[in-house]
Amino acid sequence: MIDFQLSVEKMLDRLHAGLVAEITRRELHDPLMIGIHTGGGWIAEKLHARLGLHEPLGLLNISFYRDDFSQIGIHPRVIPSSLPFRVDGRDIILIDDVLHTGRTIRAALNEIFDYGRPAQVVLGVLIDRDGRHIPVQADCVGGRMDLGPDEKIKLSGPDPLALSIQCS
Fold it and tell me: What does pTM read for this prediction?
């Protein structure tokens, strides 16, 4: 197992800088931020504070929206999503820890659209790794990794945030 604790802060810095640039480029007005439970929520908390966003942070639990729900089941203590704002017509910054197959992001977008139709969605991820199953691409990335098919990135936290690679 490899520990990446020292580089998490650098990746957060890169992701933050990318989001600032994307907010400016797209002319986002008072964007909302949503983190995907759990790791994406931890990353979103830090970025929400750094960006000085005014609206409260939203949290998505996509368990019921996964396309593999019937195969993996559900954790017995699922917490509900919390979007304490209106989504319709708003600019959204969606945050996750790792973009791998694209299925988590697809599920998150499905759930967001159940709440309303946002003006636009910016996707930011701490780590973009290889292995897409669905054509999803992040707008802002903290770092990139190519891993073997039996390797998995694990984010632990929330304080401190630490990354490790695990083999299955």
Answer: 0.91
